[in-house]
Amino acid sequence: MPPASTLPGVDALWPxxxxxxxxxxxxxxxxxxxxxxxxxxxxxxxxxxxxxALELFELLKPLLDARHAGTPWAVGQxxxxxxGCVATYGGDSNYVNGPxxxxxxxxxxxxCDAVIVGAGTAALDNPQLTTRRVDGxxxxxxxxxxxxxxxxxxxxxxxxxAPTLLACDASRAHEAARRVGADQVLGMRGxxxxxxxxxxxxxxxxxxxxxLGMLFVEGGGITVSRFIEQGCLDRLHLCIAPVIIGAGRPxxxxxxxxxxRDCMRPPSRVxxxxxxxxxxxxxxxxxxxx
Length: 290
Ligand SMILES: NC(=O)c1ccc[n+]([C@@H]2O[C@H](COP(=O)([O-])OP(=O)(O)OC[C@H]3O[C@@H](n4cnc5c(N)ncnc54)[C@H](OP(=O)(O)O)[C@@H]3O)[C@@H](O)[C@H]2O)c1
What we know:
By secondary structure, the protein is an alpha/beta fold. 29% of the residues lie in helices and 23% in strands.
């Protein structure tokens, strides 16, 4: 076996992942491609690779399999402290995690059709939501703002780096269009439920209608929690950093469980991300539901 340092690594693997995200996996007849596909196992990596590339492939495989199958699919992420916070009380989250996790976020953006953030994150972070740390296309940037509280001066509405959609109920679409322009508004009938909550299945359906089936829900804690509660996430990447924030903004905020046997216990895998630890949780497995 060649020494590990001469084996192809992440730099060689990443363009292959981007190709699959753009066009699906190579056909079984394409024996030249290092990524093969078959119905039983989905995508698999052929030949010898270094350990880092093998780990990255395993982590991304569920996403690549969904891409090949052409099924709508959504992954959420939260980067949190040991005490379960995603930001300080005042909303500072730069940075909870180390640089390895930031690269991972940008990779997920590049492999998905759209990145979704809640209004709280958009207002506090004024993020760009681009893929500037990796090669790959920018996703469509979706800001979930049913109450139309976001200012039109946010970078995503003005920087022209990638398409942006302000997601709101159809009843508020005209008002939203006046603020940010009609081409940046996704108004949906039934997004705002009578009880004041947001129907995330309606959001997923509306995005799918626009060809945006692979979704990355990047935060914050309230938004990711609502996606989980409504059964709208397939996987969750929960990345825990060795930091203690104290009374900060909470990550997952889900309904109370009375007994341990009723708690979600999704199948999980663990990956090192520099000093952080990423938990990859399969939310579609039977044990993931109460
Ligand atoms: N560490 C990470 O991985 C990570 C990732 C993303 C964000 N963050 C941090 O998470 C925090 C935000 O998360 P979150 O759970 O509070 O909210 P969020 O999930 O981003 O957004 C959902 C909520 O935003 C609310 N909101 C709060 N302040 C707002 C404002 N100024 N303008 C418009 N809407 C506002 C909305 O309230 P209504 O329901 O009342 O309309 C809605 O409930 C930020 O500090 C951000 O830096 C961390």
